C-alpha cells in the first residue's frame, strides 16, 4: 500500500491517539465510594429505605455509583439520589436538563446556602403538579450548583489521574409528595448529606 | 494541504481483478481516522435514543451530510480528504477521550466528516451547522419543547447544507 508523507503522519498520530486513549481509560481514578457508601441509612430523627434503579436509570448511569433512597424525617419523605460519576462521568447530568427531559418545566430557581457553599432550589411544574428539588455538587468539602464547574473539575481529575482533587458527587433531594420543604433546615434534618 | 489520494476506479470503470489494484488506492488511513472519530462519538446513538431533546438527531445528521454524499457521487474520480482537518480531528478526539468531554469527541467527528469536502468559504457555515445534530443544541434549548428542537435541528442542518451549495455556486460564477 503506497502512502504519502501526510498519510504516514496521520497514521502515526492515529495510532498514538488510540494507544493513549486505551491506556488512559485503564488507569483507575480514586472515586467517592467511601463517601457515598458511608451515607447513614438511619439516625436521630430519620430512617430510610433503598430504592432500586429502574432499567432506564441503569442504562443511563452505567458503571457510575448511585445511591437512591427515600428518607423519612418526621412526617416528610425525601427522595435522595447521590451519583459518583468517577467511573462514568456522563452519569452526572445537569439536573435541570434531566427534569426538562422528564417533562417538567423549571418555573423558578434560587440559591440555597449550605455548609461549604451553596445549592440550587428548583421549582418544577408539570400540568397541575408542582414540586421542588434541591441539588448541589460536593467534593466533600466545597458545595456548589455550577454544572460547568463540575465538568471542569472532572475533566481536570481525569487529566491528572485524580491528583487535582477529590471526586465531585451530585446530590439531588426531592420531597416525595407534591409539596415544598423547609430547605434552609436541611443541614439539621438530614446532616449525613453533608458528609459526602 | 490536500492529501494526494485519488480513487480512479469509478472513472476508469475498473472491474474484477483490477479492483484489487483500485483497493490499494483507497484512502484507508483517512477512513481509519473517520472510524476512530465515529467510535469516540458513539454516545450519540444513546443520546438520539434516550434524550427527548436529542431524539431523531440522526435525521439532522443525514440532512447535514447531503453535500458530502452528493460530492462523493459526483466526484468519484477523485476522493481526497483534508489533512489539517483530519489531524485536528485526531487531536480533538484524543483530548475529548483524555478529559471525558463528549463534546470534543463530537467535534472530532464533525472535523473528520468535514475533511472530505474541499475547505472553502462555503464549508465553514456548513461545518458550524453541524451543531444541528449534536446534543449540545438539545442542552442549549432544554427550555423549549422537544418537537420544536427537532424542527430547529432539521432547519439548521438544511440551512447549512443549502449554504454550502449556494456559496459554492457563487464562487464558481465569480471565478
Describe, in plain words, how this protein is organized in 3D.
The complex is a heterodimer of chains A (196) and B (175). By secondary structure, chain A is of the alpha+beta class. Chain A has 6 helices and 8 strands. Chain A has helices at residues 5-26, 33-37, 55-61, 95-101, 147-159, 186-189; strands spanning 46-50, 65-73, 76-84, 105-114, 117-126, 129-138, 143-144, 169-175. The longest helix of chain A has 22 residues, at 5-26. Chain B has one domain. Chain B has helices at 9-12, 18-24, 28-40, 43-50, 57-64, 66-74, 83-99, 102-114, 123-128, 135-140, 146-174. In chain B, α3 (28-40) packs antiparallel against α8 (102-114) and α7 (83-99) packs antiparallel against α8 (102-114). Mean pLDDT of chain B is 84; it is low at 4-14.
Task: Classify the beta-strand content of chain B into a percent band.
Answer: under 5%
Q: What is the radius of gyration of chain B?
A: 17 Å
Number of helices of chain B: 11
How many beta-strand runs of chain A?
8
Radius of gyration of chain A: 20 Å
Total of DSSP H or I helical runs spanning 4+ residues of chain A: 6
Amino acid at each position: 500500500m503506497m502512502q504519502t508523507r501526510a498519510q504516514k503522519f496521520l497514521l502515526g498520530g492515529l495510532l498514538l491517539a488510540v494507544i493513549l486513549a486505551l491506556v488512559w481509560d485503564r488507569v483507575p481514578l480514586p472515586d467517592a465510594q467511601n463517601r457515598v457508601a458511608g451515607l447513614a441509612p438511619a439516625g436521630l430523627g430519620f430512617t430510610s429505605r433503598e430504592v432500586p434503579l429502574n432499567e432506564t436509570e441503569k442504562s443511563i448511569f452505567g458503571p457510575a455509583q448511585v445511591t437512591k433512597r427515600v428518607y423519612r424525617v418526621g412526617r416528610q419523605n425525601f427522595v435522595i439520589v447521590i451519583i459518583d460519576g468517577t467511573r462514568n462521568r456522563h452519569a452526572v447530568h445537569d439536573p435541570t436538563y434531566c427534569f426538562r427531559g422528564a417533562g417538567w418545566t423549571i418555573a423558578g430557581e434560587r440559591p440555597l446556602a449550605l455548609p461549604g457553599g451553596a445549592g440550587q432550589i428548583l421549582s418544577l411544574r408539570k400540568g397541575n403538579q408542582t414540586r421542588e428539588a434541591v441539588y448541589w455538587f460536593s467534593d466533600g468539602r466545597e458545595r456548589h450548583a455550577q454544572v460547568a464547574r463540575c465538568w471542569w473539575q472532572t475533566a481536570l481529575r481525569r487529566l491528572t489521574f485524580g491528583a487535582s482533587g477529590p471526586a465531585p458527587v451530585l446530590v439531588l433531594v426531592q420531597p416525595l409528595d407534591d409539596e415544598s420543604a423547609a430547605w434552609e433546615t436541611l443541614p439539621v434534618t438530614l446532616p449525613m448529606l453533608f458528609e459526602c | 494541504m490536500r492529501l494526494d489520494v485519488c480513487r480512479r476506479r469509478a472513472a476508469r470503470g475498473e472491474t474484477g481483478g483490477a479492483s484489487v489494484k483500485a483497493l490499494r488506492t483507497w484512502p484507508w488511513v483517512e477512513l481509519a481516522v473517520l472510524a476512530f472519530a465515529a467510535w469516540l462519538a458513539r454516545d450519540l446513538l444513546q443520546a438520539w435514543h434516550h434524550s427527548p431533546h436529542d431524539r431523531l438527531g440522526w435525521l439532522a445528521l443525514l440532512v447535514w451530510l447531503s453535500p458530502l454524499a452528493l460530492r462523493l457521487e459526483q466526484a468519484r474520480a477523485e476522493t481526497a480528504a483534508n489533512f489539517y482537518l483530519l489531524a485536528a480531528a485526531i487531536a480533538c478526539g484524543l483530548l475529548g477521550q483524555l478529559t471525558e468531554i463528549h463534546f470534543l469527541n463530537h467535534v472530532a467527528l464533525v472535523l473528520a466528516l468535514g475533511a472530505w469536502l474541499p475547505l472553502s468559504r462555503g464549508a465553514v457555515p456548513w461545518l458550524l451547522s453541524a451543531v444541528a445534530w449534536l446534543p449540545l443544541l438539545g442542552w442549549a434549548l432544554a427550555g423549549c419543547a422537544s418537537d420544536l428542537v427537532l424542527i430547529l435541528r432539521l432547519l439548521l442542518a438544511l440551512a447549512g447544507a443549502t449554504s454550502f451549495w449556494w456559496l459554492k455556486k457563487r464562487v464558481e460564477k465569480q471565478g
